[in-house]
Amino acid sequence: MIRVLAIAALLLGAVPSAALANEGGGGLISLDKSIVIQMINFGLLLFILIKLLYKPLLAKMEERTQAIRKSLEEAQAARAEAERERAEHAAKLQAAYTEAQAIRATALKEAGEEQRRLVEAARAEATRLVETARSELAQDVRRARQDLRQEVADLATTVAERLIRKSLRDEDHRRIVEDAIGRVDRVS
Amino acid sequence: MRAHEGTARRYAKALYELAHASKETEAVGRELEQVAAVYASDARTHEVLTRPWIKPEDRRAVAAAIAQKVGARKLVQDFLGLVADRGRADHLPEIITAYRLLVDAEHGRARAQVRTAVAFTDAEKQQLATRLERVLGKRIIVEEQVDSSLLGGFIAQVGSLILDGSLDGQLARMRQRLARG
To answer: Is 0.90 exceeded by the ipTM?
Structure first.
């Protein structure tokens, strides 16, 4: 508004100068009564311009300024909200990360324990299997030895029996009987 | 078999007491053995005396007739008749064995059941009896049975005492020693 009035005053100041120039020798503006009318016209025009254009324009500008300010405030609020949410998310993320670390550590510990337990169980089972196998082997060896001894004994006595039966003569029988009778005393 | 032996002992004891009262235990024993030999040799007689569906009085009559035929005395005839009547003829071998034990005990003697690979000579038999008498302190009667399944030597049994003088026994002991290692 101040700037509009300044421009109008400048124009009004220039008009007498131009009229004076015309008086000297044919200028653009003649300084006579029409100047008043022109000034009135100018005033009316200025008033109309101010009323119909300048004020709505200012109002519009003010409105836009308010809208921009509001948008800026909203943007700032949104930004602050986003910042808050980001911080919140970061905190949550950190908590989740910490929790995940704890879970991972627990899982690792449990896995280690489980692994140790499995290894110990496997070792115990292996020891037991070895002992069982050793025991069974020893038993098999004992049984095989016993079977072998029995086989040898059976074979030896069978062979001896055949040889004796083949070679035994009557005088041998007599001698065997005599020996056996001689051993009867030992019973007591 | 154990039930047979229990029954046989009761019959033998009853007969022994009667025979002992009349001092004829030895003779009764001999006659019993003769009759038992007839039973054993004649399958039909044995069948008649042991079949339960034959009337008891018929069995008694047959038994008494056989005893009479071998010249057994009245006590033996009556006893065998009673045994047949009661259906105990199949117990006769055990009765005789039990009776022998009672008579042997009365005379302070024992019987040696000897299984031998070859028959004993009289001298061997006597020698064995003498040795056993020395060990057991009673007179020994050697009852010999030749068993061809024996390899050599003999096995003698007197009551619960068993003397194994056979090669089979020695081989069996050798087998055990070898098997034990």
So the answer is: no
